[in-house]
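User: My collaborator and I are trying to settle a disagreement about how two of our proteins should look. Neither of us wants to argue from intuition anymore, so we agreed to look at predicted structures for both before our next call. Could you fold the first one, then the second, and keep them clearly separated?

Assistant: That sounds like a sensible way to settle it. I'll keep them separate. The first protein:
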Amino acid sequence: MDRFTLQGLNEARGQRQAAILITNLASGLVRLVRENDLGLDLMIEPALGEILPQRFRSAHSGLVRTAEGDEFFLTVHVPPPRLVVIGAVHIAQALAPMARIAGFDVTIIDPRTAFATQERFAGVALMPHWPEEALRRLPLDPFTAVAALTHDPKIDDMPLQAALAANCFYVGALGSRKTHAKRVERLTAAGLEEADVARIRAPIGLAIGAQSPAEIAVSVLAEIVDALRKRGMAA
């Protein structure tokens, strides 16, 4: 790998961007393709153009053989997925450890210091600040999931707007359909487009009949994993 390719890879990783190193096994040539470059005229094998989006979603490296018999090795570099939970509530207490086991970096944001405590969230990154301040320190990106769980518009609405603006791969909010209808009214009144607001998963979680906080956490994590593995796919 030449130094310019290595520099490009390091830049992509530093900026939490997904990238794939394409190594032509016959020639030894190595090429870097960032996920942000897909759709551009990259002058690559058509077969690779079809498989790269899937590899970005799966994060799976491996050998690819084209119909013409050419062989390439794809080395996939995808940022570790993050989960930012707004609200140090009971659902978050169950969701955080499960998400960590599933491979997510988890951060809990809640300005209510009585809730955001290490006693309730042992070993989890806590930010006991208002979301406006917390997200200045922890910028959102397309490899971040945001789950707003407080039921409090003063806490939830701002990070939901920030998550939509940052194109987070998952944006979910707790609340009934009636609660969400009021949320939609607030967000559209704040200037958000209806299409953007429609990206919010609400009521949050897959419809599995969850009742307890732990069951709701399971449904939320399942929905997040589903969204992660379907990034970039048409709805």
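The second protein, kept apart from the first:
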Amino acid sequence: MRPRIEPAAMDVLMVRLFDTIDEENMPWLLAADRALREAFGSWLIDLVPSYTTLMLHYDCLCLTHAEALQRIERALEGLEPAGAGLGQRHEIPVWYDPSVGPELVRVAERAGLTIDEIVRRHCDRDYRVFALGFAPGYGFMGLVEEALATPRLNTPRRRVPAGSVAIAERQTAIYPLQSPGGWNILGRTAVPLFEHARRGEPLLLPGDRVRFAAISRDEFERQGGDTTPLESAS
């Protein structure tokens, strides 16, 4: 692995560790995140890990561009991947049903599988949280089984309800609050991701693992879930 450092703004550097998305990247990205935070200390304004990169925003009033580059290079010299125990594991209960997951039919037809089999397969593995973005508490997760991979909708919805669980290509995610979106909706959870993020305590963080668990409508309602149907995308 040979990190590449690319300028993104006057005081922002993009540290690229990989060129392709892979679950095996995460231990390296987490180790780099920790090393860079230690190297920059109070001169670090923000550090955002993603699938293959880390975006580093530093205080340019305290460090020159050359000094920032030197700190990055020294921090990543001899980098070793983080231990497998880093990151939490979360089980997210989901009500999978065409009334709140209208693309269940689309995904099933594309894969040549039944809806029940789509649900089983979506729940049958842990997903790594690669990055946060789009909305507070929104975690980009993967990788979804190849058979379930489905392209985004041609026309995004104007409103996707909070708690909607969706897939796009080989990624999966949960919408933390009502927002526009073009992913394929499979179901809905009552876990309040946005409330966690609003308190400054995001439930999902890069490096965490998520396992979805199918629940009944009755259980979903007991957990406070909203059963308002969502129309199929046009």
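Some points you might bring to the call about the second protein. DSSP finds six helices and 13 strands in the chain. Residues 26-40 form the longest helix (15 residues).
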